[in-house]
Predict the 3D structure of the following.
Amino acid sequence: MTQALINGLVLGANYALMALGLTLIFALMGVLNFAHGQLYVLGGFVTYYVFTVMGLPFVVAVLASIVVLAIVGFLFDALFFRRVQQRSAREESSMLLAAGLALLLESLILLGFGEKQRGVALSVSGVYQIFDAYVPASRVVVFVVAMLAVVLFILFMRHTKPGRVLRAIAQDRDVTALQGVNIALYSGVGFAIGSALAGLAGSLLVTIFAVNSGMGTAISIKAFIMVMLGGAGIVSGAIVGAFVLGMVEALGYAFLPGSVTYLVIFVGLILFLVIRPNGIMGKPWG
Amino acid sequence: MTRLLDLRSISAAYDRVRALQDVSLHVDKGEVIALIGANGAGKSTILRAITGLIRPVAGEIHLESERIDGLRPDQIVRRNVAMVPEGRRIYPLMTVKENLLMGAYKRSDKAGILQDLERLFVRFPRLKERLSQSAGSLSGGEQQMVAIGRALMARPTLLLLDEPSLGLAPQVVREIARTIRDLNREEGMSIILVEQNSRMALKISNRAYGLSTGKIVISGISRDLLSDDRIREIYLGGAV
Ligand SMILES: Nc1ncnc2c1ncn2[C@@H]1O[C@H](COP(=O)(O)OP(=O)(O)OP(=O)(O)O)[C@@H](O)[C@H]1O
Ligand SMILES: [Mg+2]
């Protein structure tokens, strides 16, 4: 039981990174980023490549994932989203674009890293005992780094000028342009941050779950579940949704037969959304 | 007087709906200009065209002898233009302070920003009390003060106000009218005031333009227009 709870916490912290990235992009662009899971997968592969193939330190691999994904996110916006949204105000256009980009990125990952499943064995010596559970130090590292990133992200959004500008754009684009903000540039920055968070999650979790080029959509769906649970566009909602999903998933895997867990999660989500359609934190972005 | 803003034969449209047709108007330095007209006449569209939120399909806009139509909104407001949009459009989920700081976004003079905040609190003491409250929890009048304060934090030389009196109690409307007059007299700010409250607008402006279905149908000195029969008929609700 303790073991499952601890796994849930580790998962939850990393899921929070994904959910925060997704919810940031949603709040800025008004679009659910269907390619979010592929960004996660790319983050995992970059870390695998830098750490396992090139043999560089894990820290370098994580940083490489963050940087690569930030660049990919910025380009996604500059090359695709910005152009499509200039030409068409319809939400469907952006959604179709996001779905298309998911496929594109998936193919590129397949081309670049192959079809093999890849994991990273992070060997940090030491095992912690927490009550009756044994937690390898590598998981503690993964948990702590993820939590640190969550806290940094929140501090950035709350207390820095660029964070304030991103929140302003989420609330009112035109009015924010009228304050002198270059919206296109900041959308790119927001997309870069959101993607980097997904990449960081992939980079950390690849030490626990191997990645393969085809798993992106399943990850995206998980991220959507978290955001729907918590409430779309809300920071606290993303975090709550992520930990709820992480916990339920860890408990499910511990006590239910394999594939039943997600069946239970989906049924539970549908029932929950019937009762609270705006999610746990159900308010707009703050 | 020197010309600050010049709209030359501007036409604008939303998708295929014509909103402005051949609109020409100008603002000299230090002037308060009123734009009056009924619902949907095109008043807000003129302000949107000036600030680049909508691109005119024909005509030219010049600001201090520089052509600005075609520039992005952020490029235009950097030329010391600020707008108080229709319906206030404050950031409801941000604190009053954060709203005001957004107004100072393009400035980097920290000391000057703090000084301007203090001056704003002299003008609107209530904002100081509400500084760390979320702006969405304020009353309509206070929200309008936040919207005006946000615009002032940009230190504009040209201030565009879109229906600042909308939905506010009479004494708040008076307070805002006084603010507009002060800004013009004490700081020499040039102002375009869009109003459906035509009487108030004509009283505090130097000149005015009357719009009807996207065209300027009357213009002149505000004092004269106040007693003009046509204006009474169209904008002041008949004989008074
Ligand atoms: N976003 C939009 N999309 C389509 N048509 C619009 C849009 N905004 C305004 N219009 C139309 O353009 C015309 C001018 O509108 P505008 O908002 O400039 O009028 P206004 O004089 O400011 O009116 P009000 O007093 O109601 O604010 C109107 O016919 C209006 O219906
Ligand atoms: Mg209007």
In short: Chain B touches chain A through 23 residues (CB under 8 Å).
